[in-house]
Specification:
about 210 residues, Rossmann fold, 2 domains, 7-stranded mixed sheet, two-stranded antiparallel ribbon
């Protein structure tokens, strides 16, 4: 039986990957958990516990080989394969996500956007075509889609998400300001509530000003 990894650990793995990438750019070949701890503001023991969930990777008295650990975490996060993404909604947010080229360097490839606005038909964002919603079923049938990003108004998001799952898409990156009602379906959902992040920032501004 595969070991269950806590979501808290999984949320920290992309941070490790990002910091290790920065170390590689700086030419650092190895690093101790203590030095990594100082950079990341995570305790050394937490780092060791997190990595031990996947095998450890360190050597006593040596620390971590940065390139090896970077590559192994990339494998853990599924970054050794390409994931095709479609963006549902070609408004400002949908286009901004499509224009963020760093996703492609991580293996996330946006291949199409979909919208209901006829003025956008056959336009493109960074060379990536915009289709109409009535073309969705045929497009999904002809292409391998791993992830659908929802940047739709909240009143359209739930219905669209259910339709996407019916079409065989089982991973949704949800930017719509709504919790999707998909508990009875086998689907992975990552909710991104931008306003929640701003409210947390607002709280900390108020707290620090007292």
């Amino acid at each position: 039986m595969e070991k269950e990894i806590s979501q808290a650990v999984i949320r920290r793995m992309p941070r490790y990957y990002r910091y290790l990438g920065e170390l590689l750019e700086e030419g650092v070949e190895r690093i101790s958990s203590n030095d990594l701890s100082n950079r990341m503001q995570v305790t050394a023991s937490q780092i060791r516990q997190d990595l031990n969930n996947f095998g450890g990777f360190g050597q006593q008295g040596y620390g971590y080989n940065v390139q090896y650990l970077y590559d192994e975490i990339g494998k853990i996060l599924g970054l050794t394969q390409t994931h095709n993404i479609i963006v549902m909604g070609a408004g400002n947010l949908g286009q901004a996500i499509t224009n963020y080229v760093k996703f492609e360097r991580l293996g996330f490839r946006i291949i199409a956007l979909f919208d209901v606005n006829p003025d956008l038909k056959r336009q493109n964002v960074r060379g990536i075509p915009i289709y109409m919603m009535d073309e969705l079923d045929e497009f999904v049938a002809k292409n391998e889609i791993d992830i659908a990003a929802l940047t739709l108004p909240k009143e359209k998001a739930d219905e669209t998400a259910k339709h996407l799952v019916d079409l065989g898409i089982h991973a949704i990156w949800n930017f719509a300001h709504v919790d999707l009602d998909l508990m009875d379906r086998r689907v992975v959902i990552e909710n991104v509530h931008l306003s929640d992040s701003l409210m947390q920032l607002s709280y900390n501004i108020v707290k620090n000003s007292k």
